Amino acid sequence: MHTRFIAAIVAVAFTGAAALAATAPQVLRDQATVTVNGVKETWQLVWAEPPREVCGPAEVSSAATCPCSGFAYGEYGRLNLVRRHDGAVENLDLGPMFDGQETPPLTKPITGVAYLSRWPEARNDLARDNVDDTQLEADIRARPPVHHLRMGDYDRDGLAAEFLLQVGTVPCMKHKFVAVGVSKRDGRLHALTSAAHPERPLVLFGEVWEALRKGGGTVITWECQDHGAEFHNETIVSVQDGAIHAKRQTFTCPTGGAARALVEETDL
């Protein structure tokens, strides 16, 4: 591995009461070639130290529960997005983007850590686990790892230089993402933000980001009675000159054929 790359990773400072040792060997998790303004760059997801398993293949029944949705079969730890281009190295600590989100429970909560699925789930995993298939764990670990650096143009600026990073899961099977990368507005690694809240990463359900990538629109994100909900949510997204506009509308759930009424409108 390139000497400058190692030095840049080691130089990252990690905080938090339960921080793992920053001097442990780094682990390359994923890699992709990304073209930015006609220049090919190497982007990598790098664990700052060997990650620990969460919702792992040794606990298939737990991995199939709602808190693990989207994160199974996964790992957690200090994670950097590393960008190498024109002889330079740029790092972005991804862990803080997970703070305050709904992530798999740990025995002892740790701030500033990221969670990534490593091995993909298969439809019959739980059935095999229910009959105590002794080969299941080994089969899971033999699967090709999940590829996370799938690039798209989520801010509609003409650069397909962002990828979706799951940062949370809402019961059940509702996954929350941030879009991370570079844009014409900001050529440094960063999480995309909204026009209303440039101070924080924009967190949206995956289907809303996909609608934004395709040009924007209205997406139903929560329906009446979904997990007992007494509300109906829709998210409206659009892009103007590279600035993302996102708004959540909350409606009543009337009975007897009455029309829904708008209760609240929030800029995301």
Summing up helix and strand content along with how strands pair, one would put the structural category as: mainly beta
Largest sheet geometry: 5 strands, antiparallel
Q: What is the percentage of strand-forming residues? A: 35-45%
Number of helices: 5
Q: Give the radius of gyration.
A: 20 Å
Order of helices and strands: HEEEHEEEEHHEEEEEHEEEE
- The level of helicity is 10-25%
Mean of pLDDT: 90
Itemize the secondary structure elements and their pairings.
Blueprint: H1 3-10, E1 27-36, E2 39-47, E3 52-54, H2 60-63, E4 74-77, E5 79-85, E6 88-93, E7 114-117, H3 125-130, H4 136-141, E8 151-152, E9 162-170, E10 174-181, E11 190-191, E12 204-205, H5 206-213, E13 217-222, E14 232-240, E15 243-251, E16 262-267
Antiparallel strand pairs: 1-2, 2-5, 3-4, 4-7, 5-6, 8-9, 9-10, 10-11, 10-12, 13-14, 14-15, 15-16
Q: What are the salient characteristics of this protein?
A:
single chain; mainly beta; disordered N terminus; 268 residues; 36% strand; 5 helices; 2 domains; four-stranded antiparallel β-sheet
What is shown here, in short?
This protein has 268 residues and is mainly beta.
